Amino acid sequence: MALHCGKTCRQYLLHLAHDSVDFRLPELKALLALRGRQCDPSEAFREKSPFWRLCGLLEEDVRSVMSRTVCGKSAFELWGHGRTAAELKSSLLEYPIEKMTPFLQEESTYKINVYTFNKTLLFKDRIEKIDALGFLPFKGKVSLKDPDHIFCLLEDYGLDPNDIPEEPFHIYFGRWVADGQRELIRSHSVKKRHFIGNTSMDAGLSFIMANHAKVKAHDLVYDPFVGTGSLLVACSHFGAYVCGTDIDYNTIHGVGKASRKNQKWRGPDENIRANLRQYGTESFYVDVMVSDASKPVWRKGALFDAIITDPPYGIRESTRRTGSHKEIVSPPEDFSGESHVPVSMAYHLSDIFADLLNFAAHHLVMGGRLVYWLPIYRPEYCEEMVPLHPCLSVISNCEQTLSSHTSRRLITMEKIKEPEKSDVLAHLADSRFSPYQGHNSFREKYFSGITKKNGKGSERTCLDKV
Amino acid sequence: MIQNSGRSGCLNTEGEVHATEVKVNEVEFNPQFVSRMIPKLEWSALIQAAEGVGHRQDLPDTLVSNYENDEDFLHKVHRVLLEVEVIEGSLQCPESGREFPISKGVPNMLLNEDES
Fold it and tell me: Where in the numbering of this chain does the tRNA (guanine(10)-N(2))-methyltransferase TRMT11 N-terminal domain appear (chain A) (predicted)?
């Protein structure tokens, strides 16, 4: 399947929402991979545009993508396109009439929408544009309410809201096929969720993560830093069975101080299972445990189809693990004293990622994916910061900016080979497999950026990290 | 669900499950999921755990062949995997004898300072 090929094959137009821009292409690629389809962007492909032309796909492929995508707004069977109204017209006249007629029947009803990106048109202009399509052999009746077929004229006025052209850069016309799942962003909003924590993942991003991980029905998905289970909610929505662990007893049991503004303590219906119940996916709840991710308790072997997680960055949730050490960290203030919490010690960020990748290499099925967030101090970012493992291949790396000096990157990795004994020594042969130690001072860098007026950290380069 | 887990130190052995309170929920049966889970389980450990909580019923000692098409069998596995839940009890590591408590359906696998 190609993106923006010049061939005269059947094409579909994907109209994308203009947010989480970096996350869109990996999402599409993952969803097409679920259909066994490859995705090859051609040179003409402009990733930042809200309109992508897809060719080499069947309508079932497109419907399947739209049943999952949170980045895609709508998909259309593309009948014509061009850089001017004249080009659009000749393109439409070239479209095989026998492909049009099934949808233009006399007994059917239809309507034509006009959508303009980066420009607002007057009502009369929109009517004019619809009228200009009168040369098309529409035989049916117009019905604005519940028509049999919906067509759309889409115009692209560029990406610069401060420089809107008189005429669009590109115009498309097509038959509407399906809408994406952006409604999930509203229906699963964390604002209305029964059980939330300080760092519960926003609904849109949690569905994007599930898509990047190629989660599918009957999969078993695991989150080793499950918190309030936001990622499990998203995965269960796509039919996966879910389990999670967290070191924090209070969060797993749903007790202690609440994260909501007006609420003091957590109520009885606040736990991960209740969250799944809220959205009707309780039957996909497998188990949660209180457990330390640095000391996994799982049986050896490939258990999980996907591991999806948001490890603590040490900012709003502390990074800790169990252990005996001279360096003792006292339990958090919201500890309600219900059970003995073993001594906490610092869990360095670089170790979190090394442990996570190692765990994934051992416990993912072949071809299974690990999707996790990596906190980044932007002034120092270089590719070497992204952890590597001999058994995992990096599929994508998408940045979400958090502030001028920090961001987080959604890393997707896929298991490509089973671990061997020699992998333990991989870092000796190849320094890329050594944990990047610069992550450990992320917390200091995060706060130093906030207190310093200019917000700029040190000028160190990546070479200093070795 | 009765989780089959072992301490990171124990390679092949599985923990014993003791239960003082067990609940049986009704969970929608999904034969495809159960089919896919079976190869990931250690069958003897599952039997032992099911026996430990008094819900073995008539699960066989060894895994039947061609289980993917045996809906009756899959239903029995579904029951112990997803419907039988240990609410209060413990998981015991056979090597060290260490017991991990299960409270309100949630196992607590954290080791104390002197144990790691």
Answer: 11-182
Q: How far apart are the first and last CA of chain B?
A: 27
Which residues, in sequence order, are CB contacts of A27 under 8 Å at separation 6+?
A: A69, A70, A71, A208, A211, A212
Average pLDDT along chain A: 85
Region A415-442 average pLDDT = 75
Contacts with A316 (C-beta within 8 Å, 6 or more apart), sequence order: A198, A199
Distance, in Å, from the CA atom of A400 to the CA atom of A206, rounded to the nearest integer, reads 13
At A127-154, the pLDDT tens digits run: 999 999 999 999 999 999 999 999 999 9
Complex ipTM, two decimals?
A: 0.85
Residues of chain A contacting residue B111, judged by C-beta atoms under 8 Å apart = 292, 295, 322, 342
Using one digit for the tens of pLDDT, what is the confidence trace for A152-181?
999 999 999 999 999 999 999 999 999 999
* Cβ-based interface (< 8 Å): residues of B facing A: 1, 3-8, 11-12, 14, 27-28, 30, 32-33, 36-37, 40, 42, 82, 103-104, 106-114, 116
3-state secondary structure A249-299: HHHHHCCCECCCCCCCECCCCCCHHHHHHHCCCHHHEEEEEECCCCCCCEC
For residue A220, give how far its alpha carbon lies from the nearest alpha carbon of chain B (Å). 8
Separation in Å, CA A321 to CA A245, A335, A449: 13, 15, 27
Antiparallel, parallel or unpaired: β B106-107 and B99-103:
antiparallel
- H or E stretch including A66? helix A59-66
- Judge: A292–B112 Cβ closer than 8 Å, yes or no: no
CB atoms within 10 A of CB A295: 18
- pLDDT at A452 > cutoff 80: no
- Count A/B contacts: CB-CB distance under 8 Å: 86
CB-count exposure of residue B106 (10 Å: 0-12, 13-18, 19+): buried
What is the distance in angstroms between the Cα of B58 and the nearest Cα belonging to chain A?
A: 23
**pLDDT of A430:** 67
pTM comes to 0.87
Q: How many residues does chain B have?
A: 116
- Is residue A316 less than 8 Å (CB to CB) from chain B? no
Q: What is the pLDDT of residue B13?
A: 39
Using only the alpha carbons of chain A, give its radius of gyration.
Answer: 25
By C-alpha distance, the chain B residue nearest A340 is: B112
Q: What is the mean pLDDT of residues A374-403?
A: 93
Work out the average pLDDT over B20-46: 88
Tens digit of pLDDT for each residue in A262-289? 766 666 667 899 999 999 999 999 888 8
Q: Tell whether A249 lies on the interface with B, counting CB pairs under 8 A.
A: yes
Res A347: pLDDT: 65
Choose, out of B25, B108, B114, B115, the residue to mutate when testing the contact with A (most A CBs < 10 Å). Answer: B108
